[in-house]
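Final report, section 2: Outcomes. Of the targets proposed, MBL fold metallo-hydrolase is the one most frequently requested by collaborating groups, and we therefore present its record in full.
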Amino acid sequence: MENQYAPIVKTFFDAPTWTFTHVVYEKPGVHCAVIDSVLNYDPKSGRTSTHSADEVIKFIQEQSLKVEWILETHAHADHLTAGSYIKEHLGGKLAIGKHIQEVQAVFKNIFHLEDAFQANGSQFDHLIEANEELPLGKLKIQSLLVPGHTPACMAYVIGDTIFVGDTMFMPDVGTARCDFPGGDAHVLYQSVKKILSFPNETKLYMCHDYPPNERKIAYMTTVGEERQHNIHIHDGVLEQDFVAMRTARDSTLEMPVLILPAVQVNIRAGEFPPKEANGVSYLKIPLNSLG
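The predicted structure is given below as tokens.
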């Protein structure tokens, strides 16, 4: 997609979940998009807080930006989204890939959610189609469907920049796991190749970083760097070899610490489950259902 306006990107890091939230805009005083926000959650107490999202909100207000889009790259398993909280305070449209419906259907069954929960994506303001173009002032957002980690994974192309979600990581970390419901290593290989078909100078912004060898946290690389140095899928790696590596590696990984609370909240676009008769919302822990 040709786009003469290169975006400004302000990135925030949530250390407990190793998550990056990106605010994308053309200049101060215009529209912006928020990509992959974080609601803080303490798994020991079940308490939520908003200090990570409040940092983002403060920046947006200081720059006199107007939130146009609150985008999710997918329904994360490693952190809770603050999408609904940011919308409540700043407005904007909550959006996610259309295939969230498949993810909702799977997890409605796993969590045995209430009958009123509809697995049709209606919790979001907009369901994004593959190759859809979303307006952002003079910028444009083009969606890339990049399943494999989950069926609903989206990357977002804005000017010379792609926000890749969990599809891939910094070159020395590799690629996303594919053992969640609906994941597929063959499909992930093709999705990563789609991203790496962009020009070498294209900037890639990560959603997470898990740095090895005491490397400092990093959130941006390029297509060229990934093609040369990604430890899982650099140029020359064949699909069958990638799938064998990914399958073997995934079999050794533990479930993310926050997968059970995160997925329940994230498939609801950041809302909590309906309060029960005592005025309290509850999350479920299905026994012997995952992993």
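The mean pLDDT is 96.
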